[in-house]
Write a structure and sequence with these properties.
Blueprint: E1 2-4, H1 14-23, E2 25-33, E3 39-47, E4 52-54, H2 63-66, H3 78-92, H4 98-114, E5 119-121, H5 137-154, E6 162-163, E7 170-173, H6 176-193, H7 199-215, E8 219-220, H8 222-229, H9 233-245, E9 249-253, E10 260-264, H10 269-293
Parallel strand pairs: 1-4, 5-7
Antiparallel strand pairs: 2-3, 6-7, 8-10, 9-10
Helix pairs in contact: 5-6, 6-10
Length: about 290
């Protein structure tokens, strides 16, 4: 497992990491000189498979890397801000049991160490069809199936072990519970992955909608939004450029003040996409449940 705290400083390493994720093996040749000054070709081999996790402040990750990963965005809601600040205040007041936290962490680590390599068979795989709105369906479909297998893997001590009569290999089977858990965990990720807006721009767009809705208006100015949502001018300009290019907003001229403002054109796109993905996953799971009872 490779953990990269900040992808900004590992940009040159992204290509070999991508190759290692795809091929599970990297072979590179370099030329070195020995003590006699003679050059010699050396082969460097790195074996996979590999799991890569990284964090970045980039609004958009390079597409070839993004479609090989699950993209998880921070919760930037006011509710989450309050939870974090409440924790920080309690920690400063000495009311957080650090020993208990460490105890829980060690328990989870020790639980991971008990897991052993075992083959996973998903008897429901052929009936698991992703919605058409999902971005990069071929690679996302593979991720979806692998995610279900990962959940099954964690239940290896609670599942019956089978033996392949031909090869003698021991395996466990995916259950409907595993698929249900995967669907619940992946809905938000699939939703974000299918969105044409970047994560940061989507967060801003939903905040903008939430601000305009109770006011029952669709037009707004830069100055108004900067003040109400507390967003810096360069950042706001970048968001509006993306929204203008994709047709979410348009520039209009105010008849009274003769000045330009923006008008929100698309307001329920995210909710529609969310409904499509949720409905497709729920429908597929319901069909599996019905067949399993018959």
């Amino acid at each position: 497992m490779i953990v990269i705290e900040d992808l900004d400083g590992a940009y040159n390493a992204l290509y070999p990491l991508r190759e290692l994720q795809t091929k599970n093996r990297i072979v590179k040749t370099i030329v070195q000189k020995n003590s006699k000054g003679e050059t010699k070709t050396i082969y460097l081999t790195v074996e996979g498979p590999v799991s890569v996790a990284g964090c970045t402040t980039w609004e958009q990750v390079y597409e070839d890397n993004a479609n090989r990963c699950f993209l998880i965005y921070l919760d930037e809601s006011d509710t989450q801000d309050q939870k974090i600040m409440h924790y920080q205040r309690r920690a400063s007041a000495g009311k957080i049991d650090k020993y208990k936290q460490r105890e829980v962490q060690e328990f989870l680590q020790n639980t991971q160490r008990m897991l052993k390599p075992i083959k996973i068979v998903n008897p429901y795989a052929e009936q698991l069809i992703l919605p058409k709105s999902v971005f990069k369906p071929r690679r996302t479909n593979e991720h979806y199936l692998q995610f279900i297998e990962a959940i099954t893997f964690y239940y290896q001590y609670q599942r019956r072990h089978f033996t392949d009569k031909t090869t003698g290999e021991v395996y466990i089977q995916t259950t409907l519970e595993d698929i249900e858990n995967a669907n619940n965990l992946l809905k938000e990720i699939l939703l974000r992955k299918s969105d044409e807006l970047t994560g940061a721009c989507r967060n801003y767009t939903e905040r903008l909608k939430a601000y305009l809705k109770p006011l029952k208006k669709r037009q707004f100015t830069n100055a108004e939004i900067r003040k109400r949502l507390q967003i810096k001018e360069p950042t706001l300009r970048r968001y509006h450029k993306q929204l203008l290019e994709l047709g979410y907003i348009r520039r209009v001229k105010n008849a009274k003040t003769k000045s330009f403002c923006y008008e929100l054109l698309i307001s329920k796109d995210y909710q529609s996409l969310e409904k499509d993905i949720s409905t497709a996953l729920d429908k597929a799971f319901k069909q599996l449940t019905t067949k399993d009872k018959m």
